[in-house]
Amino acid sequence: MSLAINDLDAVAWMVSDSAVEYPAALAFMEQRAAEIRAGAAPETVWLLEHPPLYTGGTSAKAADLLASGGLPVYPTGRGGQYTYHGPGQRIGYVMLDLARRGGDVRRFVHDLEEWLIATLQRFNVRGERREGRIGIWVDRGPHPLGGRREDKIAALGIRVRRWVTFHGVALNVDCDLSHFKGIVPCGISDDRYGVTSLLDLGITATMAEVDMAMQGAFAEVFGRR
Known about the structure:
The chain is of the alpha+beta class. It contains three helices and twelve strands, in the order ββαβββββαβββββα.
């Protein structure tokens, strides 16, 4: 793991080179959020991958876990429903002090979406929001059943405790998309809506390139403060 911390007024970036078990990641986020709240640590963004697993947010429905396939399933305090995490998916856990950033949770969620959109733009991918559907979506053209086929390329789910955020975003780079068949991703079962990745779109990006794009886009959207 590499760690860059300049001072308490700058955002620290952590990048893990190997897969991090979910309980260990959660424990770190809890600790770091408490430290940020106490003024003992800087705001932090952690880029990592998880081994294959499912997580269920506070709105997860048991019926949406179709077949775990032996993968661990972790209930979690973030918002949202079921999602898959695994190798080839870049997780960005974001621990920011919203009290110092205006105290606007809706703006924070909007900025997370904007961060993902700006990251995808660096790979010439047009990511878009959709009313009533969480995450960032890619238009794949006309659907045989009518309307448009739209695939989700990035997800987000957050928790805010005493104005400090944790959890964050997940961007599909070159992950095994078949694992999403074990769940109803984010509770959306409409056949017109699927899941995609950069590789599925024909873009071969290394994780290091994705990290650089995410860091550059984050600076644009969130700035120093």
